[in-house]
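FAQ: What does the model actually see?

It sees only this:
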Amino acid sequence: MAVYFDHRIEAPECSEVPSQVAWHSTLPVLAVASSSSTSGGNVDLYLQQGEFVESCHVNRPNQPTVLRWHPIKPVLALGWENGEVLLLTHPSGDQTVLPNTHNASITLLEWSSSGSRLVTGDQMGVLAVWKLDARGRLQGNHLVKHEYNKPLTCCIFRPAPPGDDVAKLARASVSGDESALDKFSWKGAPLKMGPQEGLMFYVSTTDGKVYSVDERGKTSALLSVEGSILKLFYHEKREALAVITETLMLSQYTLGPEGGAQELMKVKLSSKSGQNTDIVWTENGLLITATGEQVIRLWDLERDDNYVLSLDETLGFERGEIINCVSYCAGKEILAAGTSHGRIAMWRMVVQPGSNRNDTKGQWKLQTPTEIEGNVIQLRWGSSLNLLAANSSSTVLILCEHVMSAHFSQQVAAVQVTPSQLSIAQYNTGMHLTLQSDIHIKGVCVTKDSVTVWSGKQVTVYELAGTALRNTGSFPCDSHVVAVHDENLYTVEPNRVQVRTPQGTVKQLLTFSKTEGNPVLLSVCQAYLVVGTDTAHIKVFDLTRRDAKAHCNAKNLADQIANLGALRSVKCNASGNQVSILISQVNGRPDHKVYFYDLEMDTVTHFDFFTGRPSSGLSQREDSERQQFQVTELSGRCPISHFWDESEPRLFVCETEPISSESLSASHSDTVDISVVTLFCTQEHGLLLQDCYPKPAGLQALLALDVPFYYFSCKPGERDPAEVSAPASASPPQTQASRRSSAPVPHLPHMVSRRALRDFVGLENCEKATRDAMLNFSFYLTIGDMDEAFKSIKLIKSKAVWENMARMCVKTRRLDVAQVCLGNMGNARAARALKEAGPEPEAQVAMLAIQLGMLEDAEKLYKGCRRYDLLNKFYQSSGQWQKALETAENHDRIHLRTTYYNYARYLEAMGDKSLALTYYENSDTHRFEVPRMLQDDALSLEIYVNKMKDKNIYKWWAQYLESQSDMETALRFYEYAQDYLSLVRVHCYNGNIQKASEIANNTGDRAASYHLARQYEGHDNIKQAVHFYTRAQAYNNAIRLCKENGLDDQLMNLALLSNPEDMMEAACYYEEKGTHMDRAVVLYHKAGHVSKALELAFATQQFSALQLIAEDLNENSDPSLLARCSDFFIKHTQYEKAVELLVAAKKYSQALQLCLEQNLTITEELADSMAITDSKDLSEDARKDLLERIADCCMRQGNYHLATKKYTQAGNKLKAMRALLKSGDTEKIIFFASVCRQKELFIMAANYLQSLDWRQNPEILKNIIGFYTKGRALDLLGGFYEACAQVEIDEYQNYEKALNALTEAYKCLSKAKDRSSGQQEVRLADLQHKTTLIKRFLQARRLYAEEPGEAVRLCEALLEEPELDSAVRIGDAYGFLVEHHCQQGSFQVAYRRLEALQKLLPSQNIRYYISQESLEALQKALGVHMGQGDRRDSEREEDEVEEDLSLGSHQGN
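And it is asked to produce this:
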């Protein structure tokens, strides 16, 4: 909350009527041009508070026409009506007159953006461009001079394009951006460092022409409009030039790179004719005009939108008040307007939460006006301090914004309402006073007996004496901060604090060393004063004695707090042992932490509102959900003010705002989400979060904490609706404190509101004992010590106290404590609701909040636990229907229709039937609810029925018409509703039974057909009755009529269509009648009475029917019936059916015997059905015997796989393997042997696998060896290895592998048990002998390469062995010798060896042993033909083939 201090300029006597004002853009220096009838024209400079700068007074006999400040330097350009242009420098007062260039009145002065160029223009159309150096000094004569022959009106420089961002380019270069590197390289274009100065400008004339002047001074015509040009603006975002003429015609032109202009738009601005126009242009494209009306007109050129702002009489404006001038402050986003009644209206740009910032309409908020004297004709914002100058024709006032001062202490609150007025509230006495001071109040400090105000130059003390304020002292003092305790005032000056009396007498000096710095901050709490210095030192003084004594040494916080720039605020608690500190960081931004200095422990801790945690984490013993909730609620914020409770040293409160709002201007403070956070601060437990809640709407700022209340200042013009027992009186006394005036002070609204702490809601007026008990309870509850918490309140009997504690439990989420509180309150209903609230703790806490009337907390909790169904019910119960609908549509769609229905019921109860109708339709209950709701309004109901075209509504309306005896219309609506039953019923009622029959036949409606059948039966039309009973599927009625009327043929068909009971009745009817027995059998069978059907079929010899019945027999049928049926099928040679029936009758032996006798194939399904597992029907032995018999039968039939399965089920795995071996399924044999893991099966499987081509399949070879090994048949394995060795010799002549195989055979036989009484030793000796012979033969082969002779000798010796051929083939030995002799050229010897071989093996083909090359060499050397043996052998092979063919032909015959 802010007020504006107005300072009247200290104008010299020679200056009379101010005509123009101009602020420097950054410096707080104001130029004022005025005229005097005696001395001519004057220009004077004034400082921030209106101080006159004597050195800068300029006087000329002519009148000043234009004032323009240099954009950077303190240089003012002055234009006079005689054509003189003067440069005035502040503060030296140096004056530089430009060379005489103009002879007519100066009409324009314009600086370039950096001030290096100055453009001057006059009434005759002469324009000159001047150059100035960096210090603002003129550089020679003009650079350019142009004559346009028409008066010049406006000039505007075109901004230069933005330069390169060096920091961004550097980052891009580091990341490898080649284009960025090129800009830093000498090869590229020169780098533009920062913003460049645009030297091109546009100038306009009174004949509507605009000229452009480029950087070299060359001028050219740009565009032309009708009428004299009033203003030129450049729209930087669109790169467009806006032109406004005297007739307020606005044109926009886009500017091309070549210098041409193209019209973009043209519009006539609204205005009041014959009035002066003040036009303001903002950087964001907003055009603001004041044309002597009661409104301000705004055109948003970016969004092509326009709107008006008007004055509000409720804020103090008068009817008919005219707005003369406007000015806009971009820094604060404030629009100021001066009125004809001496008021300054200010609109502040306020962004509402959730609104679009780009939507400017409706975001201007009108503030309370500032009143000055006279008619305000000119307003100007300026300087970096955002000062406002107001010209009221007679004088100029400088308005400076000041944050309204406020203070609370000892139940007295003071809030500033105007620059010199305070609103004072005494809560002990209930008095409300106003204080009018004769100084501008920059600060206030109150105690129970006094009010102290100061302006920075003077301090005034007032005594509170009942209903009056008495000035007890006033003295000059430059201290910008003052503190008060009892009768002492504390002021600051360099390196010390002065202790003064109310009259200003210095009683004591509290000195600070140079290192400790200058005191800048003071704060008093109870009897302790804390002082903060500009070097970040703090020091606490004890004020309990006559003189202030140091309570601790000065503490340098810079040693404890990193990145500390300066202290913002310091406060101490009531016991003086804790000091809270807010700081600014080195970069000037406020720190996110609140720091706490413990004087006794000499430690600094903090609570970080950025993370939502203290320096040591949350100290409460809480569950993780609540802790996470509080951290989320507190995080991302920054403290803005802080206070200690005036009597409770543990209790601390802090105002926080979101961090994002730090970057917003102060104009948005109305919408910032301010939170009030309360903490307990103790040495033992550190910082404990006690409460956090948003600042209530309508309140400005926190003033103090004094249990049981928070104290807030109110926003001006807004009364807090929830103010709790604010002090008031029907006629509050008003005191004129200024001795110079006794005028009555107008009534002021209450400016202070207080809010009870969460723990004290309902206990605002409790006594001190209860207050202390509640504080202790809250503290112990916060630290989780429930025993101490209950001890502190066990003596309290007040239900209000317990209810308050229950409310506290909502905040702390302590359901256990809440149950105790509800018990002491006697609130059984709330206790039951809490118990039934659901499993989620948040939902239970929300229900507790509802029972206690804390609806906002309940809503927040339901949202937190995402129980949108309960939130929906809550909204409905509390009448918040729009929120309920929104919740149902977005989160609780399962209850969407129910919500619509409940809302419709509510609307109906409220009398809003049209909207209720819509929501009944949304809930899909309109078919019943809308007719019910509109039944008293027949016309509206008929319109609704015809509109909806809904079948159900048509039916309801038809029934209504039928009740009114309007049968024709009812029939029409029944037809619309397609209610055929009602159509038939009404037609029958009307006697039009033929039409009813057509409807029933055409639609096939069962209900209609049944009704019509009843009608025909009543008229004895049996045929039609049966027909429509059949269409209605009421077969029992149709059967009844057929039996009664002898319609036997129709009876059979109807009975087959009907249920079993009707079939039984029809069958009994046929049986009793003695005719159509076949029908009776079929019906009994269809009805499920198979035994009765069989008996009747046997009795009447219905064999075809019997066969049909037998198909439905199964194991659940009567065994005797099954036996009879099986005998019947055996007699009729239907053996397969007979077997099925025998199996169903569980006569498995007979069924199996029948299969054997009749050679019936036993399928797997039949075999499984015979292999019953129920021990009640068959013993285990009998079952196994049956399975073996089934398997034997399968073996005879060649079904080996099924036989294997049944043998396995019977437990005879040996027979199962034999059956599997017969099947020849190698894969299953291997699998079965591996699964069964029996010796005999392993051996059988291995023996079988030997019969296969194991030489080509290594997997089979591996299984053979594995099975023999697992079956422990080492003798058989040895024999297999021996066979393998023989195969290697016979087939591949591979004696090495043969030797390995014989070696393995020997190993196996040596391990095998001797079961043949010495035969094993013989086999081992034979194997050893074979092994020896093969080794000798292999040795000869290996030796041949090195010693052929020795190898031949060994081979010849080997031929002399008697049993050589059993180990080494004789042909291989002779072949070795023949090959050797052929290689040696001893062909005769070779031939003799060959002949010896042929004699030993006459039937063998010698080519098996001797290579083709050797035979050809022998044939060539000796001339002997070697093909005889081959031919003889081939002839023998042909004979064998012929024998095979003849054998095959004989078998075929």
